[in-house]
Specification:
Layout (H helix, E strand, L loop, with lengths): L1 E14 L7 E14 L2 E7 L10 E7 L2 E7 L4 E5 L4 E8 L2 E17 L2 E12 L2 E14 L12 E7 L2
Antiparallel strand pairs: 1-2, 1-10, 2-3, 3-4, 4-5, 5-6, 7-8, 8-9, 8-11, 9-10
């Protein structure tokens, strides 16, 4: 198992269509990347910018699947897998919600030095379509080295559905 201190850059965009105005968020924060067998685990603290201050977000990156867990101000576990819809319980200060995610497409390229994740998915809240999200995450070693080196063992997947 290897542990690396990393800089995490997140760009997110939510599309609400007729339901409201689109929103964008960008966050740069420090985190930790752990390589444990065939899985990469990325953890970072949320900020005021995301509205989840006091929450730790963890992404478990496997071949073809990404699991997002949040613990703190909100608690949830969401699974992203192309072509599949997953429902999860989302615990907030205002009360519980049922959140569904249908992943349109995703890709990831990770190594012990960092990497890139990108995905697009639809979101349902309490079984009603809420909108769609497009997220890009760049992870690089905090020492400033190149984030992804194909010569280093890692996980790469690139999958799309129509």
């Amino acid at each position: 198992m290897t542990r690396t201190d990393v800089i995490v850059s997140i760009q997110g965009r939510q599309f609400f269509g007729e339901l409201g105005e689109d929103e964008s968020v960008e966050l740069v924060t420090s985190g930790e990347l752990v390589h444990n067998g065939s899985e990469y685990i990325l953890s970072y603290r949320e900020s005021d910018l995301t509205g989840f201050v006091g929450t730790v977000t963890t992404l478990m990156i496997n071949q073809g699947r990404i699991t997002l867990m949040r613990n703190g101000l909100v608690s949830t576990q969401m699974v992203f897998e192309e072509g599949r819809k997953y429902l999860s319980h989302y615990e907030t200060e205002e009360g519980p919600l049922m959140v569904g995610v249908q992943t349109r497409w995703m890709r990831a390229a990770m190594s012990d030095l960092g990497g890139d994740i990108e995905m697009e998915y639809e979101v349902e809240i309490d079984h009603a379509l809420s909108g769609a999200s497009h997220v890009k995450i760049n992870v690089k070693e905090s020492g400033g080295k190149k984030a992804f080196n194909p010569g280093v063992s890692g996980v790469v997947f690139d999958r799309f559905i129509n």
